Amino acid sequence: MPTPQAPEPLPQAPPVIGAPAGAEPAEGQASAVPESPPSPVLVSLLTQSRQAAGRGELARAAELIERGLRIEPDNARLWSRLAQIRLEQGRFSQAESLARKSNRFAQGRADLLEANWRLIARARSQRGDEAGAEQARQTAAHYQAR
Length: 146
Hints:
Elements: H1 40-54, H2 58-71, H3 76-88, H4 92-105, H5 110-126, H6 130-144
Helix pairs in contact: 1-2, 2-3, 3-4, 3-5, 4-5, 5-6
């Protein structure tokens, strides 16, 4: 039996201090609260999802990420991963929407914001929106410089 790859870290996006309960942070907003380590359940779901995607089972991969999102609905890394899967499935509008949702929870994480904007650029390009894709690439470059 092959040894599973170690998944990338899954940060839990903390709530914005002083925000009303259930309020979503502004896109790219910094957080004063340190990140919590991912739960073993989320690590397992992400690992299983990556394995399923590696076998070409994108629907199963998405299902596993969605299960993780029911546990941690504000997890920016999970929203981003689901956006990547939707992009691979050719669901470009949904991929962009999910990447934007990830950005709302990214809490100033320039690396994740950059990756999400690059994904948005690919989704827009696939839909034939080259002007929008270029705008998204420029936004990604802004985060890369940080």
